[in-house]
UniProtKB/TrEMBL annotation:
Residues 7-108 form the BTB domain. Pfam families: BTB_2. SUPFAM superfamilies: POZ domain. This is BTB domain-containing protein. GO terms for biological process: protein homooligomerization.
Amino acid sequence: MKMSGSDIIKLNVGGKVHTTTKSTLCKFPNSMLGAMFNGSMSPSLDENGCYFIDRDGELFKFILNFLRSSKLSLPESFKELDQLALEADFYQITPLIECIELLKQPSPEKQVRVRYLEVIEVRTGNLATMPTMNSRIKTIISGRRDVIHKFLSLHQIHPAERERLQLNSGKDYTEIALTGSNVRLQVGECLRNQGWSLSESQMSTFPSGEAIVHNYKDRWMLTVYKEDSLEESQCNSVDDELIDEISLLSSGDE
């Protein structure tokens, strides 16, 4: 009897019964299943009249779902990819074979990218350790322009520096004057809340005439993990280069 594409078919695959349609099994005419049900081959029947295939019945559900949706969907804990590849090869379903080969390729390694910002505060005065009316405070942040722009609020940047920050190209390293009382602590709190960690903090003191100069230098570090995909390596190779070190202001600059 000739079957139509909507005919219901029961398959006994390795002792497990699956129910589907002829059109699903013949989705890829050049496959073994396509040949079985388009008249090119004569499939065997079991005692219950089901078409019998002597293969893995549990894995066949993934084969059947691929025929239905053209997508390979596997559970996260799936550990039988090699066996599934053998099943796909047996059924000669080329698109499924290609999907499995892609999954078998090593996962892209995570690349570590490190960003640095350095905040330098210079206090000059008779009581330079405290922000009093008798002390002058200058605070500078140094690092990559796009990183500064992304993680700092504009109100923390000195008005005279904002235009220069906008004009510099994205990956230039720059030194920007900051504004505000105790801005070094404000910037530290801002960076900490965004995932940065304080990797180094130094203080130095030296006399300058009748005044005392205190230099405070905080180096902040952010570690970013990104997948090294082909698309990224082609499109973002410059943007995603590893930064091993940044040339920063010397602690004696004013």
